[in-house]
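Summary of Year 1 activities. Much of the first year was spent building the evaluation harness for sequence design. The harness presents a backbone, in tokenized form, and records the residue chosen at every position. We chose the following record to illustrate the format because it has been used consistently in internal testing since the harness was completed.
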């Protein structure tokens, strides 16, 4: 195979670190942070392009890059013809409407006839239309949160994560219109070789994500409690049970989901398990 996959990543910003980390965990090595605009991987047929996030959907649509990692907010706002291959679960944020603290809010219809400042005119416009609200959208490219204090708008629609930017500008969030996370986007017309490479990458990403969401668990249990304990540990297929040297006891090995980890651990302990070890998993292949 002679093709090389071109992957666009944000050069430096809120998507960069987690994007670089993801490829590292997928076992794909490349240099970054050297100020270079691109870098070829030493162990996977991929070339990485380091760009501003706003330009990534356009480059992927035009085929300058085959794949890209971008915030879903930017992918939707730029409305380029790209395919969402996978949700990546990092750089989570929301696009919300906020108004000056102390101002009354009775619902989205309060925005009728008002000015709203945003860098997301398309997303906001669509939302207001769906809600049957007619407001004036002022597109500004940055520092949206200062718009009300300088008299440019009565409300803003901006990206929020912790909420501290709104707070320190005397604003308060009244309505979330979109939830976003980093996504892997692809050019819709990848040739067969590149599609094969993209699928290989996706397989690795899914294995890394599955491993992160699960833990390997090893415990000792009295034999009479095994049926109950194994029913609490569905594992990948079913738990592995081996006898211990101590008569009447067994060792149980399984995989447990991170989300219901603490609840299950309590139930497992209550059922008589002892010596419970919980171990991180590096890769998990289904
Ligand atoms: O230089 P370049 O153009 O590449 O980067 P950028 O400055 O345009 O984008 P960047 O790095 O700030 O964000 C990249 C992506 O990260 C966004 O498109 C979102 O998908 C996602 N993301 C996650 C965020 C935030 N969290 C976030 N908090 N993007 C922006 N913010 C900003 C927001 O605009 C506001 O100014 O942070 C402020 C709010 O943060 P809190 O924590 O105070 O609520
Ligand atoms: Zn940007």
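For this record, the design step produced the sequence shown next.
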């Amino acid at each position: 195979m002679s093709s090389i996959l071109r992957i666009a990543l944000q050069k430096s910003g809120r998507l960069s670190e987690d994007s670089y980390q993801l490829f590292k965990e997928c076992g794909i090595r490349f240099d970054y942070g050297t100020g270079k605009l691109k870098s070829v991987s030493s162990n996977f047929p991929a070339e990485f392009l380091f760009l501003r996030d706003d330009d990534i959907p356009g480059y992927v649509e035009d085929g300058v890059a085959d794949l890209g990692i971008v915030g879903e907010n930017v992918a939707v706002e730029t409305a380029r013809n790209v395919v969402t291959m996978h949700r990546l679960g990092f750089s989570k944020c929301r696009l919300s409407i906020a108004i000056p603290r102390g101002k009354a809010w009775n619902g989205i219809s309060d925005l009728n006839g008002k000015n709203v400042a945003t860098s997301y005119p398309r997303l906001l416009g669509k939302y207001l239309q769906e809600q049957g609200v007619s407001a004036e959208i002022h597109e500004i490219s940055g520092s949206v949160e200062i718009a009300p204090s300088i008299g440019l708008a009565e409300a803003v629609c901006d990206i929020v994560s912790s909420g501290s930017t709104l707070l320190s500008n005397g604003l308060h969030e009244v309505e979330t219109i979109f939830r976003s996370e980093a996504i892997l986007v692809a050019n819709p017309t990848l040739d067969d070789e590149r599609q094969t490479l993209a699928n290989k990458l996706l397989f690795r990403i899914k294995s890394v994500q599955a491993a992160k969401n699960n833990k390997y668990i090893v415990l000792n249990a009295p034999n009479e409690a095994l049926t109950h304990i194994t029913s609490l540990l569905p594992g990948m297929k079913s738990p592995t049970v081996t006898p211990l040297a101590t008569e009447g006891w067994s060792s149980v090995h399984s995989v447990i989901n991170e989300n219901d980890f603490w609840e299950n651990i309590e139930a497992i302990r209550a059922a008589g398990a002892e010596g419970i070890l919980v171990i991180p998993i590096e890769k998990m292949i289904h």
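The first helix runs from residue 16 to 25. Quantitative recovery figures across the full test set are reported in Table 2.
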